[in-house]
Amino acid sequence: MAEQKKMVDEITSMEEDFAKWYTDVVRKAELASYSSVRGCMVIRPYGTALWENVRDELDSRFKATGHENVMMPLFIPESLLQKEKDHVEGFAPEVAWITHGGEEKLQERLCVRPTSEVLFCDHYSEVIHSYRDLPKLYNQWCSVVRWEKTTRPFLRTMEFFWQEGHTMHETAREAMEETELMLNVYADFAENCLAIPVVKGKKTDKEKFAGAVATYTIEALMHDGKALQSGTSHYFGDDFSRAFDIQFTGRDNTLQYPHQTSWGMSSRIIGAIIMTHGDDNGLVLPPKVAPVQVVVLPIAMHKEGVLEKAAELTKTLSKFCRVKLDGSDNSAGWKFAEYEMKGVPLRLEIGPRDIEKNQCVLVRRDNREKTFVSLDELETKIPQLLEAVHKGLYEKALKRREEMTYTVSNFEEMKDYADNKPGFIKAMWCGKLECEEKLKEEAGVSSRCIPFEQEKISETCVACGEAAEDMLYWGKAY
Amino acid sequence: MAEQKKMVDEITSMEEDFAKWYTDVVRKAELASYSSVRGCMVIRPYGTALWENVRDELDSRFKATGHENVMMPLFIPESLLQKEKDHVEGFAPEVAWITHGGEEKLQERLCVRPTSEVLFCDHYSEVIHSYRDLPKLYNQWCSVVRWEKTTRPFLRTMEFFWQEGHTMHETAREAMEETELMLNVYADFAENCLAIPVVKGKKTDKEKFAGAVATYTIEALMHDGKALQSGTSHYFGDDFSRAFDIQFTGRDNTLQYPHQTSWGMSSRIIGAIIMTHGDDNGLVLPPKVAPVQVVVLPIAMHKEGVLEKAAELTKTLSKFCRVKLDGSDNSAGWKFAEYEMKGVPLRLEIGPRDIEKNQCVLVRRDNREKTFVSLDELETKIPQLLEAVHKGLYEKALKRREEMTYTVSNFEEMKDYADNKPGFIKAMWCGKLECEEKLKEEAGVSSRCIPFEQEKISETCVACGEAAEDMLYWGKAY
Question: Which pLDDT tens digit goes with each residue over B210-243?
């Protein structure tokens, strides 16, 4: 056997050490690696291709809902950051400060944007004058920086990649509709593109975005029972408009403040993909964003005509799916393990006997199911199988989430489940901050959201026993 | 007539004040606006859409030549920047320094990347071990920051957008071939996509990139006779490999240093588009990257069926070109001026009489030529007309460049032309730095490139009169 490019060695099993399993997968599937820059990742070609597919899918949804992309500055002058009180309090402790340009000390410090509300507002104050200038439906793709103490690839890094939508509207109602619309876009994308089931809801005041009136979220449950906030949509009212003196002449000829939203999804979503679908053999990618949907592996490659046939098939397949041929001299066993590790949804094997029978073998990554398919039927069978993988992944994730979602009605139960049952815990809440803080401190769970789909579990708050207002999802979170 | 959203007021004519014409076009075509952040632009939706088309066209050329995208950190620790001597000398004076993260003073300063050679090398030292790991053909799309004193939108800004390719190869020859390949990709893109004729050549040592062995460039001539360096491709030899201790086991089992290239094209290219094709009515966009290729304008819109027919046509056209309908209540005259200002390549007018005759009028932006076209022939005629606009723009630009390219053979002539004839000046050079500096100081021209297509103008250097080595393009530059 020829020298192998590298060995596919064992990855830590999920059961043994989930955190280590995660970093093993990130590293061995070559999604990202650490850099010499503390807290910053190098996103490698495979990870970048995955992110580009996420970006393109989201971007087309944004454009279909009337949004336009812009590119805003990387820096925010300190005085601009300070214009909205709650916002600066939330972000100032975690920004990177630029004090020098070349040799020259700056008169005013600049921070690297941790988010861009103030930059958009600064621009909006220049371009919004009349109700005819509204709505402004802008988005940008960029990276932002937040000074984090501990970091993990994709989940929490100092610099991360995201999109941030920032919109301005004539009325509060329109802005609230936008907030909801974009939350639904995120939920649709998570479920129909990434096969990740999500709970839609509202954040409590404690957990909302700094400066927002209300924050909405989609929450997903990871394999280890921890929650991952996967996308957020914020309604700001006119607080920033007032702080930035953005005014427009309304239909009634009076000066008015526009109403604002922002919404974001970040490279964290790659962490969600890994921890929702992955298994002990590595990554499992949802077909709609997988950089390679089908890997073609010639079997008994030294036999005449096999590699040629595999190359011919690859060319045909490239017309309707993302396909890669591995004609390297690594062993078939090595290749099987390698592309399982990389989470490629379908493996196509073709050897001399298959060629004789005008067929090939298709193996699903998610359940290892094998199908013999005639070479004449690939154009219909492969899309069907990719769809089946998508559906299989979604259903498996949904089933797991349902099995790991618990209901508790008093504080003792909450503590017990929080300690012993990783997952979502549904429980009633009175709406008081002190109860939320007690649950955090004494049971170790944070509120994930007030779901839009409410149930009445009991009459009383799980923390204080007084009259409850809402049912919430609680849990441990990334 | 209804209230108009805004007036298309006059822009300064090119003849009167070219610099003011340029900023007028940038502002009034809504490509970009200034921000509160010194030296940083806000790239508005129209400018961003243009940049995204540039990006997508280039990106598909990079992928077709085997390159993969990655995403590298935004920051470079000071010690990492200092690893390659010439490189740090070139860039350290113009970087932005981060000294604090939140409240905490950093132990080591970080700069915001001015370019990413050192970040790629740091990563390559981790992932390159064997000749089997080569070549590495990476690219990234990002923004970089250089602390500029004076700034002009797109042409020179503190933060600018670009792509930077960074590749590693087994042999010097392969790396040199890559350098040349990517220069050709840029030239092909400039000419066949942007309709900008370019001169390909090599930079002198004085003008080459900090740390490079050789820099190649494509140079374009702007409307005012100044040159714009539009894309560069650098060959590094193994200097960085040695500085970063990147070694691989070669085919002969010895440890070797790989050979490196980098290449970049930036948002400056938007400045080149504006200053190559624009006229006194505003922007003129090359069809292949124009965000809107055809604007549909209903004439006598109040007449029954006109707006409906225009909307129906727009829908049909959207299948084969980028099309926009303007059904607003602004006057036809206002709309004509607005879309001329925005440089939309084709204007489609349709009124009640056209509908009767089953035809419409197509007007070219570049030469205002009108064509009546049957509504049944649009799918063939529009692509033909877009191609004709592209060709027209290229030929016009090439003709202007030829008319503005002069040949001189002694220093007096050089001074005379430099003072009185804006354009490229071809002249012989002996190869000595002092002659290049003399031409800069006394004639005000810098060397643009040593073109691949050489001519022998005379035997002697235009500056010192000694034996000449090469013919160079000289000029004033952006």
Answer: 889 999 999 999 999 999 999 999 999 999 999 9
Which pLDDT value is given to residue B69?
Answer: 98
Q: Which of residues 185-204 of B touch A (CB under 8 A)?
A: none
- Mean pLDDT calculated for residue range B451-462: 96
Instruction: Assess whether pLDDT exceeds 50 at residue A246.
Output: yes
Q: What is the CATH architecture assignment of B405-475? A: 2-Layer Sandwich (3.30)
**Per-residue pLDDT at B4 exceeds 60:** no
What is the C-alpha to C-alpha distance for residues B62 and B453, in angstroms, rounded to an integer?
A: 25
CATH classification for the domain delimited by B294-390, as one of 3.40.50.720, 3.30.70.270, 3.40.50.800, 3.30.2270.10: 3.40.50.800
CB crowding A93-130: b at 16 or more within 10 Å, else e: ebbbbbebbbeeebeebbbbbbbbbbbbbbbbbeebee
Distance (Å, whole) CA A389 – CA B176:
45
High-pLDDT (> 90) share of chain B, %: 92
CATH number given to A294-389: 3.40.50.800
- CB-CB neighbors (< 8 A) of B45 in chain A: 68-70, 138
Three-state secondary-structure class, residue A212: coil
Which residues from A are below 8 Å from B96, CB to CB? 75, 98, 100-101, 110
More confident residue, B76 or A84: B76
**B145 interfaces chain A, CB cutoff of 8 Å:** yes
Measured CA to CA, the distance from residue A239 to residue A172 in angstroms comes to 12
Q: What is the pLDDT of residues B297-328, one digit of tens each?
A: 999 989 999 999 999 999 999 999 999 999 99
User: Which DSSP helix (H) or strand (E) runs through A76?
Assistant: strand A75-77
Judge whether residue B7 has pLDDT over 50: no
A45 chain-B contacts, CB cut-off 8 A: 68-70, 138
Per-residue pLDDT tens for B23-46? Answer: 999 999 999 998 888 889 999 999
Task: Note the pLDDT of residue A3.
Answer: 38
Amino acid at A130: S
The domain made up of B18-277 is a member of CATH 3.30.930.10? yes
pLDDT at B9: 62
Average pLDDT over residues B191-206: 98
Q: How confident is the model at residue A87 (pLDDT cuts 50, 70, 90)?
A: confident
> Using CB atoms and an 8 Å cut-off, which of residues 161-180 of chain A contact chain B?
161
Kindly tell me if the per-residue pLDDT of A2 is higher than 60: no
Burial profile B48-68: b = 16 or more Cβ within 10 angstroms, e = fewer: bbbbbbbbeebbebbeeeebb
List the structure tokens of B224: 């005012």
Q: What is the pTM of this model?
A: 0.95
User: B27: nearest CA in chain A?
Assistant: A127
pLDDT, residue A64, reads 97
How far off is chain A from B349, nearest CA to CA, in Å? Answer: 24
All residues of chain B having their beta carbon less than 8 Å from the beta carbon of residue A97 are: 98-101
| Dihedral sign, Cα of residue A280, residue A286, residue A292, residue A294 | positive
Contact B315, B282 (CB under 8 A): no
Q: Enumerate the domain spans of chain A.
A: 18-277, 294-389, 405-475
Residues of A in contact with B99 (CB under 8 A): 97-100
Cross-chain CB nearest to A43 (options B70, B159, B161): B70
